[in-house]
Write a structure and sequence with these properties.
Cofactor: heme
Number of helices: 27
GO molecular function: heme binding; iron ion binding; monooxygenase activity; oxidoreductase activity, acting on paired donors, with incorporation or reduction of molecular oxygen
Largest sheet: 5 strands, mixed
Strand content: 5-15%
Keywords: Heme, Iron, Metal-binding, Monooxygenase, Oxidoreductase
Pfam family, one: p450
Structural class: alpha+beta
Protein name: Cytochrome P450
């Protein structure tokens, strides 16, 4: 899993915390758990202006309080077909009503019954309440146990607690669960346990004390006799047996993880802002020598020289740069091949397969998903993470539809794609940890592809996605079977983070320049000009400011011969600031010739996904523009990737 972006705050025993732990683990979403003594989350809640109810879930866009808010936020982030509350509006209304019944009629009375009895068993209740909490809180609980117990009783309203009514409420919910499972299947989710089952089982935990709970529960022998009788009675019900079967499917909880703190930036990076780099690139294109060399490395800055380098694929090669890494993680692919029959054969297969893919599902995703994510984020919490809450998941959903590979979860698909991309194209320092992670991720991706290929073969499934089209080419023996995996993996790894990085860079520029944002907003409905604006903004802040090649013997670079093995750096950022080609490069002009840009490569190694990104990136920006992305904000990076860009959403009147 990637490092966590969310934190679960509260006592480890809380059913709400358990619910979110389990849902995150099922979706392979990493989380940090910040445990506190029961009741001590209340000052945190009030300081943040949110309800006191657990769980508290902290994310880059803010903190929610209470199970209902946490589940709504979780549902909002789910991809279509996997939404927590269901897909149709009728199903969502029904399931949300059931969840609220589970919360009010099972979870809340169950927690009260637990503390009503367990507060009389000091050793056992403290053993559960102090799991994972700071040392000072453990000392407080031991020294001031009576005060803490009084606070819990008052907070839960146990002085006048009607236990019989609570038991009746729980029995009514258990009856409802029994009725629903008889009508819809052995589980609340149907044939197999789903999100509803997890919510139910966790809500029932205080009166069942199930095995496989995500935190250590009191030993049955340590329970007060009356509470032991309640647990036995609940376990004997149909609903109790259902919860036990659901818990039997649970895997081990995630090992403890921490959200990474913001990385300390080097002094150099504080000065080399995008604006400074852009200004330097413009000066280099105008005044620097055509090439600058040091050791066995040369740089070229002018558009004509950079274009010449990228066209001259016979003596300025890409294979020495990319082939070894690409082959190690996913198998031979065109971005690691120089001019050869194999390259042209694979490239023709790529474009032939892409031509056969139905565009309708992709268009539907780009029409609906950006709007849905923005609308739900605008309602709560009123802000959105442009990278991991918007561009990256939308790109992942498009990729899953286009390529036919979904992965075990969306989080896993994004993790694997990023790890492979990092090793393949961005591991310039040859970091061993990055390499090992990328190779392992490549093996996972290959396994997913092979499993889906075998499933379709077994069931004779033909689909109009890229995997389906490549399978047809393999059946016609136009490509080898193993090439299907190589091509699919090679294309998929760049499809998610390239889009997310480009979108983050565009939004960052818009928030830094209100006049630019207003100008782009005026063209939001003009797709041609909007595409031009996106290209222009990426000219100022491209996602790939350089491209690398290696020279063969007697290769020429910017009018001068260089030795074999020389690393050639084509500075595309500088080339796209060259006034000889881009007149008045400091000005933004959405009507420039699209063929001049180098965002997605140049020459025979153009990005195969450039046509998709010419639609996808403007679609992401167009959906965002009505929310007035004018407030300055900054990108937070993880390694070479933009990973967080929080934008307050202000719908236009």
């Amino acid at each position: 899993m990637e490092e966590p972006r969310i934190a679960l705050i509260g006592t480890r025993l809380a059913p709400g915390i358990e619910t979110m732990r389990w849902l995150c683990e099922q979706g392979r979403i990493a989380y940090e758990e910040r445990s506190h003594l029961p009741g001590l989350h209340i000052p945190i809640s009030r300081w943040r202006g949110i309800p006191d109810e657990l769980p508290l879930v902290a994310s880059p866009t803010g903190t929610t309080g209470g199970l209902s808010a946490a589940l709504a936020a979780f549902d909002a982030r789910c991809r279509p077909g996997e939404r927590l509350f269901g897909e149709s509006e009728a199903e969502r209304i029904e399931n949300r009503a059931l969840i609220e019944r589970l919360r009010t009629g099972l979870l809340i009375p169950g927690v009260k019954i637990y503390y009503r009895h367990m507060l009389e068993a000091r050793r056992a209740v403290l053993a559960g309440a102090t799991q994972g909490i700071p040392l000072w809180q453990k000392i407080f609980a031991q020294v001031f146990f009576g005060l803490w117990r009084m606070g819990i009783r008052r907070g839960l309203g146990l002085e006048n607690f009607d236990e019989k009514k609570a038991r009746d409420d729980i029995d009514a919910v258990f009856t409802l669960v029994k009725t629903r499972t008889k009508a819809k299947g052995p589980f609340l989710g149907g044939a197999s346990p789903g999100g509803l089952d997890i919510i139910f089982a966790a809500a029932a935990a205080p009166v069942l004390l199930p095995e496989n709970y995500g935190a250590a529960l009191p030993a049955f022998a340590d329970l007060p006799p009356d509470y032991r009788s309640i647990v036995n009675a609940c376990r004997a019900t149909h609903a109790g047996g259902l919860a036990a079967r659901i818990y039997a499917t649970r895997t081990k909880p995630q090992l403890p993880m921490q959200r990474p703190r913001e990385e300390m930036k080097s002094i150099l990076s504080l000065f080399l802002t995008p604006g400074v780099l852009r200004g330097g690139a413009r000066l280099a294109a105008r005044w620097a020598p055509r090439r600058i060399g040091f050791g066995k490395t040369v740089l070229a800055f002018r558009w004509a020289d950079v274009a010449d380098i990228l066209r001259r694929d016979g003596d300025l090669l890409i294979a020495p740069i990319n082939a070894k890494r690409i082959t190690a993680v996913a198998g031979p692919f065109i971005l690691g091949m120089d001019r050869s029959p194999e390259l042209f054969k694979q490239r023709e297969a790529v474009y032939s397969a892409l031509r056969g893919v139905s565009p309708a599902p992709i268009a539907d995703i780009l029409k609906k998903e950006p709007q849905r994510l923005l609308i739900e984020a605008a309602i709560a919490p009123g802000s959105i993470d442009i990278v991991n809450g918007y561009a990256r998941p939308v790109a992942a959903r498009v990729a899953a539809s286009l390529f036919g590979i979904k992965g075990p979860s969306e989080a896993e698909l994004m993790r694997v794609a990023r790890a492979v991309f990092h090793e393949t194209f961005l591991n310039l320092g040859d970091d061993g940890a990055v390499r090992n992670t990328g190779i392992a991720a490549g093996a996972e991706l290959t396994k997913w592809i092979e499993e889906e290929y075998a499933r379709r073969e077994t069931h004779d499934v033909i689909r109009e996605d890229l995997l389906g089209r490549l399978m047809m080419l393999a059946l016609r023996r136009e490509i080898r079977r193993e090439e299907v995996s190589h091509i699919l993996a090679g294309l998929l790894v760049g499809s998610i983070d390239t889009t997310a990085t480009a979108a983050a860079n565009i939004v960052s520029e818009l928030t830094a320049n209100r006049d630019l944002a207003e100008a782009v907003a005026r063209d939001a409905l003009n797709i041609v000009r909007l595409r031009g604006w996106c290209a222009e903004i990426l000219r100022r802040r491209p996602h790939n400011p350089i491209l690398l090649r290696e020279a063969t013997a007697n290769a020429g670079v910017a009018g001068t011969r260089v030795a074999a093995g020389t690393r050639v750096i084509a500075v595309t950022l500088s080339a796209m600031q060259d006034a000889r080609v881009f007149g008045s490069p400091e000005k933004m002009n959405p009507d420039r010739d699209p063929a001049l840009y180098m965002h997605f490569g140049y020459g025979i190694h153009l990005c195969a996904g450039r046509d998709l990104n010419a639609v996808q990136i403007p679609a992401l920006i167009a959906a965002l523009l009505p929310y007035r992305p004018f407030a300055p904000t900054k990108i937070r990076d993880r390694g070479p990737f933009p990973d967080e860009l929080i934008l307050n959403l202000e719908p236009r009147a």
